[in-house]
Structure formats: structure tokens, C-alpha cells
User: Which sequence fits this backbone?
């Protein structure tokens, strides 16, 4: 069975910001190869025109009036944050040193 | 045990108006049924206390609309303020939204009663609801069979007569395919018809919320109240609210129907095809023209869907990082480890696979090779459909290739979930409306469905054809069978 290399799996995992265990890496070497082979079939499709369909919406984006609306209370906005200090969301150290 | 829930919404509405029953009678009956059918595992979170409270509050109010006091179940990827919304994922296991989705506000305006949040595939990624962190729901027709997915809980609770109505969401068949497997009516409206505000995004250019019901008329009635332009969703359509029931009961004579050859090819099982062909004969006998046609790129729709849906999902699910909400990895050494370990532990297998492939698709040159090309062919598919609708009123086909399969069947193949939806995915590509109508049963008494598709914004016509067939076919769609008689 064809597989991706370990490095290829780690590359896509890094793009997706997902840590993987050794077992997961082995599993995804097979699974991701299957999926990528499937989407590779698009390379064989010919004869299409170049117009892109980004969204099924056929009208121009209409912005709402620039008026002050209901604001979210910060206390409410923080309700689901797993770590917080005062009025702030708390995150670990970003820069060492 | 009372049996008010076996009545039509119209009949229940009359009893409420005449003060013969109260909303609390309906709510009590719903929870009795949910509790005695807990093995179906339709719900992730029940809203019992709040539902009872709301039912009592409604006793002092006037019954002013058809859905007043009617219980409804909501798919667990639609945000409900104060009511846990998990997307069937560990990463949102304890997430309680601080606002309502627009459809929830609309349901509340009509004084409907939300009884709980339904089980589904994790982040709506799957076609059998087995990727749920909370274990799969079971099919009321045969508990050893899948419900389909991703709106499996929403389909099973309506099919099992636990709740009369539910809402689902459909990115690549997630309303219509489980509706087919569970023997109910499920509509994916035109893209833009229903606001997506508050629907946890999977693939934003494909996602759409829709009604799941026991019959066609109640489906149209429910779409009536959830549709409409919403300034909180810039992709919602500038369309006036209309009455989707207005063509129900009208003659279907001389309607022109197209069947794409691919939809009746050897990818479809004999049992499903036999049922479908019988329905086609009925349509012909009733004065419709039915032609078999070819639609370009239909057989490529799954590949395109994979590229577009996984690409969009990888961006949409980037927000789950352990910082703002949801599961958060404890004591990370730095921010990077917080992200990567939160996502490793918080997401299930199917979701991780799709995000990784999606990130691959959108990275560097690949965006041109895969994503841009998929969008070009998507445009061609849409134009092909438009061309068909210049000549025909409807496109029809079977909704699924087989009846519901065994829940124990191996589902580790990463391609399986996509292939299960092969007949319904093209509709999402083109943003068209599509409805599943039950048309018969397999020899094992499992429901089989037909997919009815129309031009954009012609849902009323779909309901017209579907209600005609429903009336002609007179199927008993109650899986409890004799127990109900």
C-alpha cells in the first residue's frame, strides 16, 4: 500500500497546527495518501472554462448601515475562555527570552 | 401515555387553540418518549427544565401561530444561547453559546419549544453520525442500522416520533441523506435562503440550515418561518419571505422532469433503483414528461466537494485553538504547544484528517492546482444545471445509493463518507434546493428516498411535486408500525 512519508505527514500536520503521536503519524500516512490521491483526480479534468465560482451568491455584497449596534459585554464574551485574568484572555508565553 | 404527538401540527394547533391541551402536555409527552427511547441516542443535550418553564409561561399567552407551543429539536451545531452546543466534538464539550443563531431567534419568536440538541457527526463531517464524540445515534427502523449523517440525531428523533420537527444542516447531503435513511422529509433550501448566522461553519460556501419533518406540508411551514434576509449573514439572499405551501395540492400535469443518467447508473443498488423507477412510472402516468439526460462533470462532484469543503473547513476550524473557548490543553510550554496539543486531543480522527488535507490544498502553489481549478469546474457544474433548468422543472434521482447499512460496518475508509453522498453533493456545489421524499422500503423494511431538485429559489415547486407523490404513495412512515395502530 502506498503511503505518504513521515515528513510529508508532519508537514501537513504543522500547516494545520495539529500535534501527532507516532501511531497517528503511521495511520495518517495511509489515510491522507488515499484522500490526496482522490483529490488528485482533478488534474485529469479537462475542457472547463476559467470562470471561478467562489460562492453561490449571485449578488454583490451589501454592507449594513454603519450604525452603532448592540455590543457584546466583555464579561459575557469571556464566559467560555478557558483561562482569563481580569478582563483579558490569558495565553502562555509567546516569546522565550 | 398521551398520543398528541402523533397528530399533525394543524391538529395539535387546534387542540391548543380550543384549550383542550396545554403546551406542557406536549413537552411532557416529548420527554417521556425521549426517555423511553434513550437507546436511539438522538440527543447530546436535553433542555428539559427550560422547556417545561417555557411551556408554563405560554399558558398565559394567546395561540397566535401554527407553531405556538410546538416542541422542536435542534442540531447541535446551531448556537443556542445558554444551551450547550458541542458540534458533537470533545473540543466544544462544555461550550455554552452567548448568543442565538438567527434561526433560533425566529423559532423563539413563534413561541416554539426547544427540547434539546441533536446528535451528529463531529462538526458535521461524516455521513453516518458515527464520528460523534458522544457515540452514534441509531436508526428507529432498525437499531442495528446507521441513521445517516451528519444530521443523524435530527433525522432519527423525527422518524422515531420523539419530536414532530427538527432543524438540520446540509453541506454535502447532511439533511437529505439521513432523511432518506430514516424515512422523513428533509429540505436543503437554496444557498442563502436561510441565515447561517450562528451555524458553526464547516464549509461556508456550501452550508445551509433546513427543516426535517414527518411530512411535506409541515416541512414547507417550517421553512416559512426560518427563511429570510438577515443582515448578520452577508450571504443571505435578498428575497422576500414567501409562503412555501402555496403550490401544495396544485396539479403537476405536464411538468418536465430530468433524470441524470449518472444518478441511475450502476453506483445505485437494485433495490433503490426499483423503488425509484416505480415512482418515475407514477410521475409519467400522472402527466409528467421524464427524460434521461447527461450533466457534465457530475461524476467529478465528489472530488470537487472534497477540495472545496476540506479547504474551507481548514480555515473555519482554525478558530478552535484553546484560547477563546472550548477544550484547552493544560500547562503547555508555549503558545504553539497550546494550539497543537489542544487540536490533537480536542478533534476526532475525521476532523483532523479533513483539516490536514484542507491545509495541504490551500498551501502555496496547491491553492492554484486544486482549489482554483475546483472553483472553475464548480462554475461549469452550476452552468450545466442552469441549462437543464431552462428546459425542465425538476431534476430527480435516488437520494442514496443503498438503504441504511449496518452500524457495525467498518467505516475507517476515509473515502467512504464522501461516496455515501455522491448523489446529493452536486446540489450543494450549485447552491440549488433539494428535498428528500420517502418513496418506499427495502425488503428489510428500511426507507428509500427520492431526491427532488429545482432551480434556485423554487422550493415551493419542490413541495408541490413532493406533496403530490406523498399523497399518491400513502406510505406508513411510522417505524413503530403496529404499536401505533
Assistant:
Amino acid at each position: 500500500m502506498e503511503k505518504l512519508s513521515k515528513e510529508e505527514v508532519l508537514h501537513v500536520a504543522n500547516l494545520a497546527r495539529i500535534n501527532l503521536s507516532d501511531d497517528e503519524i503511521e495511520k495518517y500516512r495511509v489515510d491522507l495518501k488515499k484522500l490526496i490521491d482522490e483529490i488528485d483526480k482533478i488534474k485529469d479534468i479537462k475542457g472547463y472554462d476559467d470562470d471561478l465560482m467562489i460562492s453561490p451568491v449571485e449578488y454583490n455584497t451589501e454592507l449594513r448601515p454603519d450604525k452603532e449596534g448592540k455590543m457584546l459585554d466583555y464579561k459575557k464574551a469571556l464566559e467560555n475562555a478557558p483561562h482569563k485574568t481580569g478582563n483579558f484572555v490569558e495565553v502562555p508565553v509567546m516569546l522565550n527570552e | 401515555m398521551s398520543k398528541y404527538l402523533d397528530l399533525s401540527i394543524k391538529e395539535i394547533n387546534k387542540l391548543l387553540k380550543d384549550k383542550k391541551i396545554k403546551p406542557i402536555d406536549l413537552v411532557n409527552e416529548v420527554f417521556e418518549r425521549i426517555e423511553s427511547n434513550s437507546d436511539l441516542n438522538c440527543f447530546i443535550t436535553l433542555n428539559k427544565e427550560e422547556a417545561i418553564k417555557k411551556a408554563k409561561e405560554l399558558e398565559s399567552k394567546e395561540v397566535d401561530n401554527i407553531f405556538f407551543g410546538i416542541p422542536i429539536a435542534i442540531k447541535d451545531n446551531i448556537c443556542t444561547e445558554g444551551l450547550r452546543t458541542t458540534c458533537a466534538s470533545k473540543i466544544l464539550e462544555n461550550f455554552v453559546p452567548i448568543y442565538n443563531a438567527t434561526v433560533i431567534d425566529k423559532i423563539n419568536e413563534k413561541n416554539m419549544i426547544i427540547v434539546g440538541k441533536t446528535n451528529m457527526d463531529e462538526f458535521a463531517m461524516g455521513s453516518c453520525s458515527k464520528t460523534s464524540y458522544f457515540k452514534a445515534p441509531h436508526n428507529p427502523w432498525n437499531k442495528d442500522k446507521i441513521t445517516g449523517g451528519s444530521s443523524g440525531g435530527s433525522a432519527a428523533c423525527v422518524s422515531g416520533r420523539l419530536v414532530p420537527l427538527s432543524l438540520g444542516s446540509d453541506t454535502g447531503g447532511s439533511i437529505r441523506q439521513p432523511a432518506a435513511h430514516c424515512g422523513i422529509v428533509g429540505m436543503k433550501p437554496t444557498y442563502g435562503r436561510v441565515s447561517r448566522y450562528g451555524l458553526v461553519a464547516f464549509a461556508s460556501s456550501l452550508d445551509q440550515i433546513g427543516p426535517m419533518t414527518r411530512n411535506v406540508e409541515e416541512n414547507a411551514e417550517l421553512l416559512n418561518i426560518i427563511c429570510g434576509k438577515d443582515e448578520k449573514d452577508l450571504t443571505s439572499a435578498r428575497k422576500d419571505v414567501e409562503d412555501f405551501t402555496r403550490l401544495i395540492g396544485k396539479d403537476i400535469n405536464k411538468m418536465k422532469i430530468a433524470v441524470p443518467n449518472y444518478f441511475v447508473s450502476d453506483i445505485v443498488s437494485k433495490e433503490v433503483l426499483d423503488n425509484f423507477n416505480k415512482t418515475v412510472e407514477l410521475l409519467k402516468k400522472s402527466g409528467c414528461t421524464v427524460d434521461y439526460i447527461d450533466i457534465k462533470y457530475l461524476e467529478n462532484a465528489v472530488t470537487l466537494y472534497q477540495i472545496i469543503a476540506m479547504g474551507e473547513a481548514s480555515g473555519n476550524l482554525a478558530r478552535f485553538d484553546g484560547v477563546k473557548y472550548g477544550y484547552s490543553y493544560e500547562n503547555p510550554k508555549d503558545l504553539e504547544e497550546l494550539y497543537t496539543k489542544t487540536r490533537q486531543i480536542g478533534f476526532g480522527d475525521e476532523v483532523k484528517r479533513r483539516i490536514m488535507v484542507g491545509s495541504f490544498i490551500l498551501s502555496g502553489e496547491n491553492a492554484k492546482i486544486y482549489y482554483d481549478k475546483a472553483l472553475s469546474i464548480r462554475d461549469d457544474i452550476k452552468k450545466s444545471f442552469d441549462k437543464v433548468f431552462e428546459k425542465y422543472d425538476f431534476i430527480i434521482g435516488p437520494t442514496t445509493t443503498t438503504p441504511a447499512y449496518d452500524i457495525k460496518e467498518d467505516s475507517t475508509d476515509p473515502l467512504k463518507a464522501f461516496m455515501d453522498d455522491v448523489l446529493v453533493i452536486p446540489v450543494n456545489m450549485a447552491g440549488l434546493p433539494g428535498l428528500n421524499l420517502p418513496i418506499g422500503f427495502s425488503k428489510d423494511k428500511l426507507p428509500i428516498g427520492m431526491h427532488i431538485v429545482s432551480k434556485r429559489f423554487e422550493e415551493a415547486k419542490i413541495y408541490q411535486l413532493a406533496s403530490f407523490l406523498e399523497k399518491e404513495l400513502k406510505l406508513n412512515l411510522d417505524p413503530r408500525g403496529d404499536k401505533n395502530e
User: Anything to note?
Assistant: Chain B has 15 helices and eleven strands. Chain B touches chain A through 72 residues (CB under 8 Å). Chain B has a mean pLDDT of 96. The CA atoms of residues 368 and 432 of chain B lie 26 Å apart.
